[in-house]
Amino acid sequence: MRRVLRRGLGILLVPLPSPLSRPPPPPIPLAALLLLPRRLDAFSRRPFCGYSGGRAVEQFSDDEYDHEYEDHRPSSSVANIDEWRWKLSMLQRNAEEQEIISRDRRDRRDYDQIANLAKRMGLYSELYGKVIVASKVPLPNYRPDLDDKRPQREVVIPLSLQRRVEGFVQEHLDRSLLPFDKDSGKTESGSEKAEHVNLDEKQDPLLDESVMEKILQRKSLRMRNFQRSWQESPEGAKMVEFRKSLPAYKEKERLLAAIARNQVIVISGETGCGKTTQLPQFVLESEIESGRGAFCNIICTQPRRISAMAVAERVSTERGENLGESVGYKVRLEGIRGKDTHLLFCTSGILLRRLLSDRNLNGVSHVFVDEIHERGMNEDFLLIVLKDLLSRRRDLRLILMSATLNAELFSSYFGGAPTIHIPGFTHPVRAHFLEDILERTGYKMTASNQLDDYGQDKVWKTQRQLLPRKRKNQITTLVEDALQNSNFETYGSRTRDSLANWNPDCIGFNLIEAVLCHICRKERAGAVLVFMTGWDDISSLKDQLKAHPLLGDPNRVLLLACHGSMATSEQRLIFDKAPPNVRKVVLATNMAEASITINDIVFVMDCGKAKETTYDALNNTPCLLPSWISKASSRQRRGRAGRVQPGECYHLYPRCVYDAFAEYQLPELLRTPLNSLCLQIKSLQVDSIGEFLSAALQPPEPRAVQNAVEFLKMIGSLDENENLTDLGRYLSMLPVDPKLGKMLIMGAVFRCIDPILTVVAGLSARDPFLLPQDKKDLAGTAKSRFSAKDYSDHMALVRAYEGWKDAEREGSGYEYCWRNFLSAQTLQAIHSLRKQFSYILKDAGLIDSDANTNNSLSHNQSLVRGVICSGLFPGISSVVHRENSMSFKTMDDGQVLVYAEFCER
């Protein structure tokens, strides 16, 4: 049986699930999948999820109450309703009260009338099992504090109370360790007995503050003693001497004075000056030395996970501590911190998550936002929120740090905040552009030896054809003009011939291989950092280099990769020194420009491009493809060399192309779809998304905002008034694109989560199916075996992953990948993402620990495909068959082209 859905320009035929052997659930029309009902718990009576205060929790079902009252409810009590009318009136008049909670059986009996009464009075009500709540504000679907049957409880206590409890425990331990003089009532240290303080919230608040102050002062004293003892120790003194050699240390007193005098300060510092590791540490040391260590709470954001972890580890080492003591880190699904952590390094997203539940950042004294020059979407979003927060938190200090000299832009955004520049020190780095490289190495470029393996040239060509002409001209015109106006007369004929054949759309794996061979054979010792555009290029180039007799010899060259999707343990390998007589070669993306520092790098190779999302708001068309970097990024890459000795930078493009680069990269907020961002903005309970984004450093186009809002309404995460729906609240909790987040939620609702986890992870990572230039037919045949008869890329991915998991259990995973033209590293990345998404869904209460329950319908491929379709909506197309051809049409774009390597029928 097939159901026809008429949408826009085409008709989509979707097979419905076939009947099951056991009693089937009600038929699931595609419309039900595409338009998720406002109340998700209507799909199932099993424990489900609600939203409360930015946290996801499990919804309960009170079967006992249902049994007792569902069929035999007595008639309503008029007196009880009158009493509730009086209660609700008093609630409206009392400005300090927010809600009424009742566990009375009579009230449950009369709940329908109470709910109608509350609604007429402009209030909100909800029945949580045996508990009724009436409130001035909208209520969540679930309240964990009212669930008597919840096996685990999440207790949130005020920070002040938490500190008091910790203080009393510490004081008890201190007193138990010191001999006590009964006659004097004092310990041998001379401290008086602490008076018993009742923890009842109604006690004298002045007494609370006094006791808390005393406890924190005592803790601050211990922190100061430890800090001094470390700095005076031989190891600590040696570390201090090293830190004094950094340029940032010479500006220590000026920086601390500026931070003390100003609420906002902007600091720019060249690569290697030590601003990231030293500035937050200066503040912490100063607070500890002044006896205020226990009162400060410093947060330092980093744009990437690896930098947050690496910097935290370095700072804790410089302080002579274990990670998790006074210094810790927190990234998504991972972190090391303790109750005594006062300096936390985290990603920008982690701080934004905290701001969702704590708009005032209570207890935080200093916020450092590092690498603001990258202009990531999260960083620009964070600046809007922090700027609004500063007016409410006059005591909060905000320090913005940039690796480039465009500090004036950020200074003016914060009302003329003072700026300080820290000059960096690096050894001189000699730059070689493409014409110099060709002249020096004798390498000759032809039209054929620039085609990169694995079909990259073809992929890029396809992507360029899909770009609007206006955008293509903006990217390429200056470069093309620069090449035409350059004659390279001072170079030899061989070099000029090579430059005439140079293809600016290729990375040139063979050129990189030739330069690496030149470095390994003729240059001095030192590690090499190669900047690539993305994981596809890194993986393909690594495979090519492994096959080289010199570069693939592990006794002579250590090949490493650096990418955000890699496991933490693998990422940390890039910081280790190579064995003696072995040259380390690191293949990295632009994350190595400024976020991390690899100290032994001497040689840098810069391809001049980075994979970047571009967005045409007029046509609502995003596209991810390699784009030319800016001059600032090129200088950053060059600065990675020369940390330990004079360095060399090989720019794999002509100097005239560099001269045509823009000075700075376009901010991410202006070149990407805003769907996820707008969802996060609504989580802050903002009335108008457009008004909020108009306060950005460089506001996006109104049309881009309008497109995002319309999309969120279309998928059901916003209602017509731009308020978050139940689905929207769940989606805002998932760190993925809203389409993929909806797919995960639907997979949980329809109990087919395992294949959906694989699909979402695959769409979040990259295509694991390899396409070698010389074995395209064999690779295509291998992929077609996974697509079976359904001609589905998504189901092919699911089958390929499941086959790999089976092979891994038997110890033949790499052989399986080699035989089926699959990337083992990509499949491992998909495996890691699956686990991350699974943890998030469990935390949200969408799935439980019982895999059988979560996957009771995973075998139903029609259902799985329907869930995939519902998640990708409206990005779906209908097939229009003609006599000798077929075409594809979508709702918004009409006829579209299909990627050449999909599983064709």
Automatic annotation (TrEMBL):
<dbReference type="InterPro" id="IPR048333">
    <property type="entry name" value="HA2_WH"/>
</dbReference>
<keyword id="KW-0347">Helicase</keyword>
<dbReference type="InterPro" id="IPR027417">
    <property type="entry name" value="P-loop_NTPase"/>
</dbReference>
<feature type="domain" description="Helicase C-terminal">
    <location>
        <begin position="511"/>
        <end position="685"/>
    </location>
</feature>
<keyword id="KW-0547">Nucleotide-binding</keyword>
<keyword id="KW-0694">RNA-binding</keyword>
<comment type="similarity">
    <text>Belongs to the DExH box helicase family.</text>
</comment>
<dbReference type="GO" id="GO:0003723">
    <property type="term" value="F:RNA binding"/>
</dbReference>
<feature type="domain" description="Helicase ATP-binding">
    <location>
        <begin position="256"/>
        <end position="423"/>
    </location>
</feature>
<dbReference type="Pfam" id="PF21010">
    <property type="entry name" value="HA2_C"/>
</dbReference>
<dbReference type="InterPro" id="IPR014001">
    <property type="entry name" value="Helicase_ATP-bd"/>
</dbReference>
<dbReference type="InterPro" id="IPR001650">
    <property type="entry name" value="Helicase_C-like"/>
</dbReference>
<dbReference type="GO" id="GO:0005524">
    <property type="term" value="F:ATP binding"/>
</dbReference>
<dbReference type="GO" id="GO:0005634">
    <property type="term" value="C:nucleus"/>
</dbReference>
<dbReference type="InterPro" id="IPR007502">
    <property type="entry name" value="Helicase-assoc_dom"/>
</dbReference>
<dbReference type="Pfam" id="PF04408">
    <property type="entry name" value="WHD_HA2"/>
</dbReference>
<dbReference type="GO" id="GO:0016787">
    <property type="term" value="F:hydrolase activity"/>
</dbReference>
<protein>
    <recommendedName>
        <fullName>RNA helicase</fullName>
        <ecNumber>3.6.4.13</ecNumber>
    </recommendedName>
</protein>
<dbReference type="Pfam" id="PF00271">
    <property type="entry name" value="Helicase_C"/>
</dbReference>
<dbReference type="Pfam" id="PF00270">
    <property type="entry name" value="DEAD"/>
</dbReference>
<keyword id="KW-0378">Hydrolase</keyword>
<keyword id="KW-0067">ATP-binding</keyword>
<dbReference type="InterPro" id="IPR011545">
    <property type="entry name" value="DEAD/DEAH_box_helicase_dom"/>
</dbReference>
<dbReference type="GO" id="GO:0003724">
    <property type="term" value="F:RNA helicase activity"/>
</dbReference>
<dbReference type="InterPro" id="IPR002464">
    <property type="entry name" value="DNA/RNA_helicase_DEAH_CS"/>
</dbReference>
